[in-house]
Write a structure and sequence with these properties.
- There is one protein chain.
- By secondary structure, this protein is of the alpha+beta class.
- Among the domains are: 136 residues, Beta Polymerase, domain 2 (2-Layer Sandwich); 40 residues.
- Strands 1-2-5-4-3 form a five-stranded mixed beta sheet. A two-stranded antiparallel ribbon has the order 6-7.
- A hairpin with an 8-residue loop joins strand 6 and strand 7.
- Helix 1 crosses helix 2, helix 1 crosses helix 3 and helix 9 runs antiparallel to helix 10.
- This is Renal dipeptidase.
- It comes from Paenibacillus germinis.
Length: 395
């Protein structure tokens, strides 16, 4: 590998490097690189914790079954076996729920794309048991959100109103809403965009026209086309700092599919994500030994993809949970800077300008009648300064 593209994996815990070795050996179909030294000094409790955090049990369990049992404690093998079995049942349950939802939405003429979940597992890994999943991510047109809400409510799903909104800013600031079913213990994320705003991305109509059919069920289940899927997986992983290896394994698997790299590169450039796609390839190549073809080189040229890949190691070496609030202050600051660094120059400008749009907290601070909400625009800088002054005075 070109030295300029190399990452220093020694900054990662020994246990995580062992996990990476298992993942690479599964992809390569060989365990020849393992010997007793690879298991010396391993903290097996930390190893299990990392496997759970990175959601990579299916990969690790399949490989550990082939390893000489004297290298690995019995309780580790048993925990991995039990969790692998639980995940298989979970994926079967989600598969049935997904097919039911596809039938329901199709009956009501709502076009829907499965973003991840069981359909992605079958598409990239060949079977549902080889990928973990805790919920269903479904993409529909924003015009169908109200109809989808009524259908899900009729099935017993309850909407999680986790964000407030003012002047319809939810349409571009956010990209999904969550529903949960208390009896089925199922969570569904209904997306109307691939990424939170501000962002550049294809319209739902464009994504639908390029869709592909999954082989997971007898009833048609549709997914993103290969090029759109790679762009989504790369942007999703980057936005979360690649803090879970499961997302990087997805990149490894999809690059081994029949991607038209000429179309892929054009698509990434059009939506100003070429550097994000490059980051994913640099990480996958270094950590998972993903083979890079000549066509991919365009995405990893220059310093930016490598710099972004280096930045992602911050999340991996610390086992960071980005959805566990509140985040430690240093992690929150780093993540905020990292998200900004992922943006193109145009998106950085839009991001800065977005702060001029009223926030729900402005309404809480200074309630105004709806017909006067337009006043929040000129008042926004003063209200921001007011809040900042109050925070300093309280501290």
């Amino acid at each position: 590998m070109n030295k300029e593209l190399s990452l220093d994996a020694t900054v990662l815990p020994k246990e995580l490097n062992l996990i990476l070795s298992f993942i690479k050996s599964e992809s390569e179909g060989s365990l020849s690189s393992f010997d007793a030294d690879a298991f010396t000094g391993i903290n097996w409790n930390l190893f299990l914790e990392l496997v759970r955090h990175h959601r990579v049990n299916p990969y690790i369990y399949k490989q550990i079954k082939k390893i000489e049992k004297t290298y690995i404690p019995d309780y580790v093998c048993e925990e991995l076996r039990r969790e692998y079995q639980q995940n298989t049942f979970q994926m079967l349950r989600l598969s049935a729920e997904m097919e039911q939802l596809c039938r329901l939405f199709a009956d009501h003429k709502i076009e829907m794309l499965s973003l991840k979940g069981p359909a992605l597992a079958v598409d990239l890994y060949g079977e549902i048991s080889k990928r973990t999943c805790s919920d269903l991510d479904l993409l529909i047109s924003i015009d169908n959100l109200d109809r989808a809400h009524d259908l899900l409510a009729a099935l017993g799903y309850v909407k999680d109103d986790y964000f407030s909104t003012v002047m319809n800013d939810w349409k571009w600031r956010h990209h999904h809403v969550t529903y949960t079913h208390s009896q089925k213990k199922t969570k569904i994320e209904i997306h109307w965009k691939l990424n939170p705003g501000p962002s550049y991305e294809p319209t739902f109509t464009e994504l639908w026209e390029r869709r592909k059919k999954s082989s997971i069920a007898s009833f048609p289940v549709y997914m993103l086309g290969n090029e759109d899927l790679f762009m989504f997986l790369a942007s999703h992983g980057a936005r979360h700092g690649w803090s879970r290896l499961r997302w990087l394994i997805d990149i490894d698997r999809i690059t081994r599919h029949q991607i038209n790299w000429e179309k892929q590169i054009a698509c990434l450039k059009k939506f100003q994500m070429a550097h994000v796609g490059g980051q994913s390839l640099v990480l996958a190549s270094n950590l998972l030994a993903t083979p890079l073809t000549k066509e991919m080189n365009t995405l990893i040229e220059g310093k930016r993809p490598v710099h972004l890949a280096h930045a992602a190691l911050f999340y991996m070496k610390q086992m960071i949970h980005l959805h566990r609030e509140p985040l430690p202050e240093d992690v929150a600051r780093y993540h905020k800077r990292h998200l900004f660094s992922l943006m193109s120059n145009q998106l950085k400008v839009l991001h800065i300008l977005s702060f001029l749009h009223p926030y729900p907290m402005d309404v809480e601070l200074l309630p105004l009648p709806k017909n006067l909400h337009f006043l929040y625009f000129p008042l926004r800088p003063f209200m921001w300064l007011w809040r900042k002054t109050r925070r300093h005075s309280w501290s």
